[in-house]
Design brief:
By secondary structure, the protein is of the alpha/beta class. The protein has helices spanning about 10-25, 40-45, 115-125, 135-145, 155-170, 175-180, 185-195, 225-235, 265-270, 290-300, 310-315, 325-335, 390-400, 420-425; strands at about 1-5, 30, 55, 65-70, 90-95, 105-110, 200-205, 205-215, 240-245, 250-255, 275, 280-285, 320, 340-345, 350-355, 385, 405-410, 410-420.
């Protein structure tokens, strides 16, 4: 079975890319996450029967042989696909316009266009696939939404060409304007007024930044539109809104940038979300808005040194094993310690690898449990110097999809920084 899927909180570009990919892979099942944005929900209430869409719960994952991922290539942005993440026999194909992601595959179709559907429309034209007027309309809606009606700085000539191609295929601008219309009511006006009243402009690394924090009650639609208006009114290079919903104990973080030097999508990915160079968001739970603000300033300034160093928060002493330690013995150590991996050293105490539970999947036969760990360990070890910051450690964990990083001083391992250690810092849980 081949399935196609996209990111949680699906927007028009996600659905457009999903349907476009269905034309390129006609034997595949298009799996739409249950979490979709309000505009898309309204559109599907009327048009859903026109598209053959499945839910993640409809899929028998043991039968999946190929996974096509569109408009993202990050595992944590997919819904219900956890069972496929560690499948060694799974073929993965990616179509995405985001530069950041952790889904590894040789079949990547990635280019930083204004919209992901642009890439797929180009391939549809190349293969001379027929598209219906409603499909052309949906594709154009996805393109317009992600490019801000072709006004975002991330918009490229390819996007404009794709728009022309879709209009030539009878895309209906009336339908587009109906469903892409942003709701701007009293709630949105009140929030914008409150933000402007307390607006502060700060210069960071030569850029003008404004970060607005406020409490909201319940789910508020179109906060992204409010934030975009705020950025334009305050007239800054980049603006961020941190909206805390006390009832749900969650923070919605939204960013908008008008310059290439501040990549909002990359910033939002660093705090657990995603997006594009000019726009992005993240939904965080149980987190202090002041800590989020501090993280954003550190990320923008590129500050690699903060007042809290890794030596202050790392775990130590470090349990290590030698490269000749048997796999079975390491399995017992991991079980007794309750951890997921340990560093591997040579006889001179130089770190030469890391053995983790993930590596144990390489063990196929019982007799291999008596083999030395050097046969199964991961050799390309990501390390970090002891005087670096928790922020830099978190970036490395995100980039390499790892849960622990050895901390090095004078070429020797002195500690381990784990996801838990980093979260203790970021979520302000460190003891006084």
């Amino acid at each position: 079975m081949i399935i196609i899927t996209t990111h949680k909180g699906s927007d028009f570009d996600a659905l457009a890319s999903l349907v476009a990919a269905s034309l390129l892979y006609p034997e595949a099942k298009a799996v739409l996450p249950t979490s979709i944005n309000a505009n898309l929900k309204t559109f599907l209430a009327i048009h859903k029967d026109l598209f053959n869409l499945y839910s993640p719960k409809d899929i028998v994952f043991d039968q999946v042989t190929t996974l096509v991922v569109v408009d993202t290539h990050s595992w944590n942005r997919l819904e219900g696909m956890e069972r496929l993440k560690d499948r060694q026999d799974l073929e993965i194909i990616v179509w995405d316009h985001h530069s950041e992601g952790d889904i590894e595959t040789k079949r990547k179709n990635i280019r930083e266009t204004g919209a992901a559907v642009t890439l797929l429309v180009k391939e549809i034209e190349k293969q001379r696939k027929l598209i219906t007027p409603i499909q052309a309309t949906l594709f154009l809606m996805g393109l317009y939404e992600d490019t801000g009606n072709m006004t975002f700085p991330s918009t490229l000539p390819e996007d404009a060409y794709a728009a022309g191609f879709l209009l030539d295929r009878k895309a209906d601008l009336h339908i587009l304007s109906t469903f892409l219309r942003q709701a701007y009511g009293k709630k949105q006006k009140d929030i914008l007024f409150h933000m402007i009243q307390k607006a502060k402009r700060t210069e960071v690394s030569g850029f003008t930044i404004s970060i607005a924090k406020m409490e909201v009650e319940g789910r508020i639609q179109n906060l992204a539109m409010v934030l975009q208006m705020y950025r334009e009114i305050v007239n800054v290079d980049a603006a961020f809104g941190i909206f805390k919903d006390g009832e749900r104990n969650k923070c919605m973080v939204i960013g908008r940038s008008n310059i290439d030097e501040i990549n909002i999508g990359l910033l939002m990915r660093s705090v657990g979300g995603g997006g594009h160079p000019g726009a992005g968001s993240a939904l965080l739970k149980d987190v202090n808005p002041d800590i989020i603000e501090k993280m954003l300033f550190e990320l923008i300034s590129g500050n690699q040194h903060s007042s809290v160093m890794l030596s202050d928060i790392m775990s130590y002493p470090v349990v290590t094993v030698t490269e000749d330690t048997m796999v079975e013995e390491v399995a017992m150590i991991l079980r007794d310690l309750g951890c997921t991996g340990v560093p591997v050293e040579d006889k001179d105490e130089n770190i030469v690898g890391v053995i983790s539970r993930r590596d144990f999947k390489k063990v196929r036969k019982s007799k291999q449990m008596q083999s030395p760990v050097k046969a199964f360990m991961t050799r390309n070890v990501v390390t970090i110097h002891h005087d670096r910051s928790a922020m830099e450690a978190a970036k490395l964990m995100i980039k390499h999809d790892i849960g622990r990083i050895p901390v090095i001083k004078d070429d020797k391992i002195i500690g381990i920084i784990t996801r838990s250690d980093a979260m203790m810092y970021f979520y302000d849980l460190l003891p006084d």
